[in-house]
Amino acid sequence: MLRLESTHTQALPDPTLHFYTRCGAKSLTRQDNVKSIIIVGGGIIGLATAWQLAKRGFSVRLFDRGQAGRQASWAAAGMLSQQIELRPGYETLMPLLRQSAAMWPGFAAQLEAESGRPVNYRTCGTLVPALNDDELRQLRHNYRYLQSLTPKLAIEWVDGEAMRSLCPLLARTVRGGLVSTHDHQVDNRLVVQALVVVLRKVDVELFEHTAVSELLLDGDCCRGIVAGGRRVLADHTIVAAGAWSRQLGGLPPESLPPVRPVKGQVLALEIPSVCQPLTHVITSTKTYLAPKGNRLIVGATVEEEGFDTSITSGGLMDLLFGAYQLMPGTREWRVAETWAGLRPGTYDNEPIFGASGIAGLTYATGHYRNGILLAPITACKVAEYVATGTLPTELANYTLARFSPPSPQPPQLTDAATSGAGKPGTLAKSIEGATQ
Ligand SMILES: Cc1cc2nc3c(=O)[nH]c(=O)nc-3n(C[C@H](O)[C@H](O)[C@H](O)COP(=O)(O)OP(=O)(O)OC[C@H]3O[C@@H](n4cnc5c(N)ncnc54)[C@H](O)[C@@H]3O)c2cc1C
Question: Is the beta carbon of 71 within 6 A of some atom in ligand 1?
Fold first, then answer.
């Protein structure tokens, strides 16, 4: 049997059932034939799912090839944008986004209580200012679209003066815009750190710096993995390897999830102590600004560059210019950090949950731009699926089966693809903002 050094060795305390209740689970029963679980990938999705499974009494081992929580889940801006980023064509995802957003207060409270760590869940809302006539027209059009959706969204139109009263550092050129009171935020870095702490308390074995090279298949059944060159067996395996979910060996092509990496460059500015505290997330057509304590996160490019995560002058220039247009004062602020992360995007940029076509193998991947927002519902419902063997209705539209007949390769960037990044079926390089 495999022996690996687990990062965590603490004993199992009594699990609290509080978050279960919020998830709507009726009981803590589990499939008798599923007892041990392997999770491949320790981003927010793998960590949160491990937490929920352990609380259901499963024996969980989680493998990450690096430090847990340090890929996309670390690179993200922590925006929980359930409303403001909705666009025509994306309505199908709306119920899932809204349900997960509704779970965030309970998820954050439970995580803070069990880990003893803050995650800085903030309910100040999001502002979408228009800086010129073009943006004003575009935003009004978008407002009418958002107003047409049911159930009704908590979004209102305000003039420039009202917008600046909410955030005095905004440019004087702001003409008006949207205030979305239900688009909240969290500090995603604190969340993954708290999840790592909480996994100790529920006796999850976390193997960091241990790459999973292959899934072990026995006919049509997954029996476990090969990690660090050794076989590890389990009753059930969950792939939550983010942008790398398609890279695991051992699977037939038709069972590989069509996940591709979508690069995002981000930077953080130091908010000078003389400035009033920033509270709201601010998004525009070009960029978004997300305050995290004394740092302002400025994001993010959307680039089809494969697994490249280099920082480019063009990327930084676009981000800095976008920030300057929204808040001219940022020109004087210090750059605290720059980084890039890889979003796990699918063909339709919606996530993949549940059956893989291989017994004993489940997917929880492809969360693209919404993985932080979707973490609570993913963790809760994927755990429910493993426990009961029945895919919860909330996840039913997001199985791998929707991509059949499968394509052998994820989409590639072509020279012709120069616009419409992030929209279904289109690939491009751009800056992500509220109105894309
Ligand atoms: C710039 C940027 C900004 C974003 N902003 C937001 C936002 O504001 N709000 C939001 O909701 N979402 C946002 N996202 C999206 C969000 O970050 C992702 O959807 C989410 O983090 C995906 O989580 P994950 O756990 O699937 O992937 P990851 O966090 O990437 O974790 C995957 C893990 O799997 C591990 N792994 C991979 N292959 C293997 C292997 N073979 N063996 C073992 N381990 C392996 C990796 O090391 C990694 O730790 C943003 C993303 C980026 C890049």
Answer: yes
Closest C-alpha among 234, 256, 245, 249 to residue 38: 234
Write the CATH number for 49.
Answer: 3.50.50.60
In-domain check, residue 409 = no
Which atom of ligand 1 lies at the shortest distance from residue 64's CA? Answer: 44
Residue 113 placed within a domain: no
84 CB near ligand 1 (under 6 Å): no
Same domain, 342 and 420: yes
Substitution candidate for ligand 1 out of 65, 382, 431 with most atoms within 8 A of CB: 65
pLDDT for the residue 162: 96
Q: What is the pLDDT of residue 85?
A: 82
Same domain, 342 and 382: no
Pairing mode of beta strands 212-218, 221-227 = antiparallel
* Ligand 1 pocket check for 186: Cβ under 6 Å: no
Q: Which atom of ligand 1 is nearest to the CA of 247?
A: 41
Ligand 1 pocket, 176 CB below 6 A? no
Structurally, the chain folds into a number of domains equal to 2
Q: 279-308, pLDDT tens digit by residue?
A: 999 999 889 999 999 999 999 999 999 999
Q: What is the pTM of this model?
A: 0.89
Rounded (to 5) percent helix, strand, coil in the chain: 30, 25, 45
pLDDT tens readout for residues 267-283: 999 999 999 889 999 99
User: The domain containing residue 55 runs over which residues?
Assistant: 18-75+189-259+347-401
d(CA 113, CA 166): 31
| Nearest-angstrom CA–CA distance, 161 and 168 | 9
Average confidence score pLDDT of the chain: 87
